[in-house]
Amino acid sequence: MYGSIRIEPNLHSKPLPNLDENLGFGKLFTNHMFMMDYEEGQGWHDPRIIPYGPISHDPAAMVFHYGQAVFEGMKAFRTENDEVVLFRPDQNAKRLNRSSERLSIPQMDEEFVVRAIQELVRVDAAWVPKKKGSSLYIRPFIIATEAILGVRPSMKYSFIIIMSPVDAYYDEGLQPINILVESYYARSVQGGTGNAKVAGNYAASLKAQTLAKEHNCAQVLWLDAIEKKYLEEVGSMNVFFKINGEVVTPSLSGSILEGITRGSIIHLLKEWGISVSERKISIDDIVQAHADGTLEEAFGTGTAAVVSPIGSLLWNGTPMVVNHGEIGQLVERLYTTITGIQCGKLPDTFDWLLKV
Ligand code: COI
Fold first, then answer.
1. What is the CATH topology of the domain spanning 177-342?
2. pLDDT tens digits along 317-327
3. ipTM value greater than 0.90
4. Distances (CA, A) of 254 to 40, 258, 304, 322
5. Which residues line ligand 1 (CB under 6 A)?
6. What pTM does this model have?
7. Residue bearing the CA closest to ligand 1, atom 9
């Protein structure tokens, strides 16, 4: 499928940075990237691993005007035995196709996508950090490259994969973050693109996020766009609450991204016999649970964020502090388990890892 992957070594490779130092998130990039093109009539072709560097496109390329772009986020880990593994890459390949379908981007063979990721990670395997909490973040994305200003699906695309050694997504690390519950702006509506990983969703979230920062909040928790009542997601994470012993998370309404970490967390909770339900949760439910003392924990889940405790929710100008602003027991257990599986400390019981 699509021919074999050509590898062009980087003759001007950057020296490997000290991966034990603070890496931040998405600031450093490895020496190679994967690229493959699509043209109507020719299909996806010319898969290649080439030196990492700038790409050049016609200023009329459709991605610059109409935002026809989708992406994925996934990670490679270095295990205790020095093996490099990917976490559930098949799920990312599937979701990439779902997102592409929503934006009229041609589908790709999912097994090939996983193979391309494996090959690229193999080439830059030295960049997979070992330090606790670190990983190699992998960012596959597709952009519309046809140079034409008419509004219709592009007839040309590039599929690119870049990689970045990273630490925790939030500056707070595993410390609880403050979240602002957004009452004015909306992220998505039914029938929109909220359940697809499209670039525009993130552009549209920036204004509210900037305002949230002014309130000392790391992120925004979105409410449904119609009633401004039901919790959706944070944008960089799905959300979970432990209320009176039960774990709840908003059901996939059509405007929420189906997180791979979200699915893994639900799976783990069920395995542990902890009651977990996916349902509509209103902000009033949370206010009530906070008032009567049954809001035990709140946390977000995502590839970049892993499992991040929420220390307080700012709603209508009043902060609702969760678990005294401290890391809860359940969050800690989930974090330790998921990162334990990823770095080979715990057995991969559910077959979530793929060796590179
Ligand atoms: C991820 O968790 O991988 C994401 O894509 C979220 C964010 C960094 C945009």
1. D-amino Acid Aminotransferase; Chain A, domain 2 (3.20.10)
2. 999 999 999 99
3. yes
4. 30, 9, 22, 28
5. 73, 202, 236, 302-304
6. 0.96
7. 236
